[in-house]
Every structure is written in C-alpha cells, then in structure tokens.
Design brief:
- There is one protein chain.
- About 55% of the residues lie in helices and about 10% in strands.
- It has about 240 residues and is α/β, with parallel strands linked by helices.
- The strands form two sheets. It has a six-stranded parallel β-sheet with strand order 1-2-5-6-7-8. It has a two-stranded antiparallel ribbon with strand order 3-4.
- It is globular, with a radius of gyration of 19 Å.
- The two termini are about 25 Å apart.
Length: about 240
C-alpha cells in the first residue's frame, strides 16, 4: 500500500469525485486527550489536570481553533458526513481520566466543533461521530454517546477485555468496527474458523458491524491466515 500526501488543491478533485459517487466524506481529527498527551507527556498530563487546569483549557482552546479552521476550509468545497476522533483515552482497565474531567476539559470543545461542522454543512445536518480508542472502552461508551452523539466506535481491543458481541447487545444502535482478536489470526486455520464462528453470525444478524482487527495486524500473522480471515468475513457477510 502506498500513501500519498496531497495538497488541498490536488486532493479536491479526488474528494469531490468520490462524493459524487455517493462515498462518505470523513474528517479525521486528533482527539483532545491524544493531543494533550503529545504536548505534555502521558504522566505529566495527569498531574496537569489537577495542578494547572488553566493550561489544559488554553491548550484545548487552541485545539478547537485549529480543528474548526481546518474543517471549515474543507467545508467550503464539500459537506462532512463523519467526524473521526482519534483519542486513545483508555488503557487496559478503562479510561485514563474520570468522567468529571472529560466533562470539564474535553466535551465542551468537542461539542462546539461538532455544532460548528453541522452548522456549516449545506446539505445535511446529520453526521456520524466516530471515536477511536485503544484499551477497555466500555466505561466511556455511554459518556460519548450522551456528550457528543457518538454513534460509531472502534477498534475494541480484545486483549483489554472488549467484546463486540457484548457491546452489540448492550448498545444495539451503535455502529461497531474492530473487535477481531489479532492474536488469533496467528494461530491455525481451524482456530480462526472457530473464533469467527462465535462472533460473525451473531453480529451479522445484528447488523451495524465492520469486522476489522482490533489493532494493526502484527507481523507474525501469516499472509494466508489473513486472507482466510478476510474470506470468512465475506462469506458470513454475504
């Protein structure tokens, strides 16, 4: 796979053509927690929420200004149908910060960005909101649904305790992407078949599920195993 970096001028004809074909236009945004962690550091950030809340708010105001300008420029040419927040706010036991901290330091800025994007859209005010976080995400699902109208989540890391069948049952309206244990793909074909057989039929009946790996595919997964997994996904989905 080759990745190309294009200027907005060069990317516009491609994006407009894709939109005319009915493909969804997604705006990716680095979420507030990931942004703050990159600026301040993972450990220092946790202290800063208590010791220097004014700094956190100042950083998030800058985050909002930048995200709003970028999305606004894109919306001069096409409407945004999904906002993808890359966050990684959870670890193996749950979120790094409390719901109160999310409500104070993150959600007001997310809400403002989402409202601004919706207001600028010329053809539709309804947009998908996807939150992407590693770790055990169950404790934050209801928080993001209530705060910003999240209706899609990924990647549901199995090693941290995520279970897409359970989540799909608890949140039937939530679009789910991920939840396929990458570790199983390095095992035998029989193990892959057994594993997928416990997930895909149930999620196929439920709907609203994209069966992708719960993270990047590790190098120890044989190519043929990966192809077999993808073939099974197509078979279950057809």
């Amino acid at each position: 796979t080759e990745i190309y970096t294009l200027s907005l001028h060069d990317a516009l004809p491609i994006s407009l053509g894709m939109a005319e074909q009915g493909l969804l236009i997604q705006q990716k945004v680095i979420g507030g927690y990931m942004y703050l962690r990159s600026l301040i550091g993972p450990e220092n950030l946790l202290y800063a929420f208590f010791d220097n809340p004014e700094l956190i708010h100042d950083c998030m105001q800058s985050w909002l200004r930048l995200a709003d300008v970028v999305t606004g420029r894109h919306q001069q040419y096409f409407h945004i149908e999904e906002i993808f927040f890359a966050k990684d706010i959870c670890y193996n036991k749950g979120p790094f910060i409390s719901p109160d901290m999310m409500n104070e330091f993150l959600f007001p800025y997310y809400q403002q960005l989402v409202n601004n994007v919706k207001a600028r859209n010329k053809t539709t005010k309804n947009i998908y909101i996807q939150v992407d976080t590693d770790g055990f995400c169950d404790p934050v699902i209801s928080l993001y649904k209530k705060a910003i109208g999240m209706n899609m989540m990924s990647p549901f890391e199995v090693a941290s305790g995520c279970d897409v069948v359970r989540t799909g049952r608890d949140y039937p309206e939530l679009i789910i992407s991920g939840g396929i244990d990458k570790r199983v793909l390095s095992q035998s074909i029989e193990a892959i078949d057994q594993y997928l057989g416990n997930i895909l039929p149930l999620m196929r009946n439920r709907g609203g599920y994209i069966p992708t790996c719960d993270h990047g595919v590790p190098p120890e997964v044989p190519w043929q195993n990966y192809l077999h997994y993808r073939k099974r996904c197509v078979e279950y989905g057809s």
